[in-house]
Design a protein that fits this description.
By secondary structure, the protein is an alpha/beta fold. It is built from 26 helices and 19 strands.
Length: 619
């Protein structure tokens, strides 16, 4: 896993200013702690930071295709191509010769062979850029689900790109300007695909490629979900799911460095862990290494809240013992979660403030701890989107509303009635942002992209819509969060449920099959019914754990009070101070206060962001 950055300048000479290119690459050191490289000519700078996973000695980047005394193409690539060995054999049959065992070289030769159709041949998670010196052409591509991020900006004659906005912001020509639309994206829980927070920076949409020429920029979609009739009965569907997932997990365990399973004890991660154990046993490999995180005293003093009925740790231990895994349980304290350096690291990793506070920090600290034992980890992200795991899809009143169901779901609790992290915004600013209007427009645009299958019942049609909305407007935020926080720790996270073939199959399985036994995730439960302990199989969905220590809430209150009384705090004019005092009095560290806490978390994150990123607000 790596970081990529660079730019093409069709009006100047980049080679005269290598320091800027080096600065852009340096911002991504955490994504590639094992090495870095920079290729320069008069019109382009192509940079790379590397974390070695496949072919540790080979695969250095940027990688060039040279011949007849000149460079034909320069590649910088981030990701993992799971079918690279098959592609390598096919390309060898077409006359290509390889110097390394890396998937990087396969990506380069795929580009040389198939040009703009190369992304269609790649299976996995990726973002890459190719510069062709002779044609003055820059090509960018991103994987189908958007597991790997890729951003770009156009500033005059310069076209810049990077794995993260921070790389682009390192270029002096890019303003740090955030307008009302950008602030809406900060607060949105259904961000607009292809948009950005900073006015001049945009994101290449998942499943798209882009060509940049001196006189034009062209963007094309190479993959999208299509609606087709599902012909398999329930038994065949269950068997297909087990076989597909087993093959995907086995393929994603391939690595030249240690691999771990991120195990929460929920159905999704437990299913992957047991399939990984089977794959290892079948090939005589080492035992699976599983890791879970827990808060200090959480299991002993756990209290059920609105969406969590039990702590994770006992279930994770149960699965680890069942499959014979080498299991590690990490313990985090409230002091760890309030640590200023860790909280700042989360902000710098994501480039934007979020309201998730202790959940972000605990995830980051978990990834950092996992990195001490493994360089690659598998996680169960996207199973809920595919199998119908979220509660909002099962609540008829929410599912039938003409809105993103998870946005409607926010409004049922006083702590999130104004939206996650927006409860303390100045009323004038809240009115100006008009998030209800923003969501209404975004929802209509999102609906227009949902494929239609003739003959579906109204219920099946609506469930297809929600599945598509989740995959295109909810899941990308989760994937981006996982990518940023893991890469900030030098850890590569793989997501087997995001295999595009599996996503295509599950997208077309009807809702009547997905809930055939009247529960959430019926098909996944059935697919691993003979592989997991019954207590794990029957466990209701439990979202990511939150800290229940009242001391953490009190520490947040104190930090917000200090921030709002500081005359130099840039966030102070954006906040309703009376509302902040009232909410402080209403929350005392009770088990349900975690939803209110998001508002305090966002105040602190906003303040740090405005300060550290030197944001110029244009409201």
């Amino acid at each position: 896993m790596c970081g990529i950055a660079g730019w093409a300048d069709f009006g100047g000479e980049i080679s005269h200013d290598p320091d800027v290119a080096q600065a852009m690459v340096a911002t991504l050191t955490c994504r590639g702690p094992d090495g870095h490289g920079l290729w320069l000519d008069r019109q382009a700078a192509i940079g790379h930071t590397r974390m070695s996973v496949i072919d540790l000695r080979g695969g250095q980047q940027p990688m060039t295709a040279d011949g007849q005394g000149r460079t034909h193409a320069v590649l910088t690539y981030c990701g993992e191509i799971y079918n690279f060995q098959e592609l390598r054999r096919e390309l060898q049959g077409r006359g290509h010769r390889f110097r390394t065992r890396s998937d990087t070289e396969v990506v380069l030769h795929s580009w040389l062979e198939w040009d703009t159709r190369a992304p269609e041949r790649l299976e996995g998670m990726f973002a890459f850029a190719v510069w062709e010196p002779a044609r003055h052409r820059l090509f960018l591509a991103r994987d189908r689900l958007g597991v790997k991020p890729l951003y770009y900006a156009r500033c005059g004659d310069a076209f810049l790109f990077g794995s993260e906005p921070k790389a682009i912001l390192a270029h002096p020509a890019v303003p740090r300007l955030v307008d009302a639309d950008g602030l809406r994206e900060v607060f949105s829980e259904a961000r607009t695909p292809g948009s950005g927070v900073f006015r001049h920076i945009r994101e290449l949409r998942p499943g798209h490629w882009m060509e940049v020429h001196p006189d034009r920029v062209e963007q094309r979609r190479y993959w999208s979900l299509t609606a087709t009739a599902h012909r398999d009965d329930i038994e065949t569907t269950v068997n297909t799911i087990q076989q597909m997932l087993g093959g995907i997990v086995a393929r994603e365990l391939v690595s030249d460095v240690p691999v771990a399973m991120l195990l929460s004890g929920g159905l999704d991660s437990s299913a992957l862990t047991v399939l990984a154990a089977r794959a290892r046993q079948a090939h005589g490999g080492p035992r699976v290494h599983s890791i879970t995180a827990n808060y200090q005293g959480y299991s002993e003093h756990f209290q059920p809240d609105l969406v969590r009925s039990a702590p994770d740790a006992p279930y994770a231990r149960m699965v680890a013992e069942h499959v014979g895994a080498d299991h590690l349980e990490l313990t985090l304290s409230s002091a760890d979660l309030m640590n200023a350096d860790s909280r700042l690291a989360c902000l710098l990793a994501q480039d934007v403030p979020t309201p998730f506070g202790d959940m972000d920090t605990s995830t980051y600290l978990t990834f950092r701890a996992v990195r001490e034992h493994a360089k690659v980890a598998l996680t169960g992200e996207s199973a809920d989107e595919l199998f119908g795991g979220y509660s909002w899809i099962h609540l008829t009143d929410l599912a039938e509303q003409p809105m993103f169901p998870w946005v409607s779901f926010e409004q049922w609790h006083p702590g999130t009635r104004d939206g996650l992290g927006r409860g303390l915004l100045d009323r004038g600013l809240a009115t100006k942002l008009d998030m209800d209007g923003y969501y209404a427009q975004a929802y209509q645009r999102a609906l227009s992209e949902v494929p239609v299958l003739d003959g579906e019942t109204p219920e099946e049609r609506r469930m297809r819509e929600i599945c598509h909305l989740q995959l295109t407007h909810w899941l990308p935020m989760l994937l981006d969060r996982n990518d940023r926080l893991s890469m900030a720790s030098g850890l590569e996270v793989r997501v087997p449920f995001c295999d595009h073939r599996f996503v295509e199959y599950m997208f077309n399985v009807p809702w009547s099959q997905k809930t055939f036994d009247g529960r959430e995730k019926s098909l996944l439960r059935a697919a691993v019914a003979d592989l997991l302990p019954d207590a794990v199989l029957q466990r209701p969905k439990s979202p990511f754990p939150v800290n229940q220590d009242p001391a953490y809430t009190r520490a947040l209150h104190e930090a917000v009070a200090d921030t709002l009384t500081d005359p130099n705090s840039p966030v102070a004019p954006l906040i309703d101070h009376a509302a902040a005092r009232a909410m402080t009095e209403e929350t005392n560290g009770g088990v349900q206060d975690w939803l209110f806490r998001m508002n305090f978390e966002m105040v602190l994150q906003l303040n740090s962001w405005l300060t550290r990123y030197r944001v110029d607000l244009a409201l």
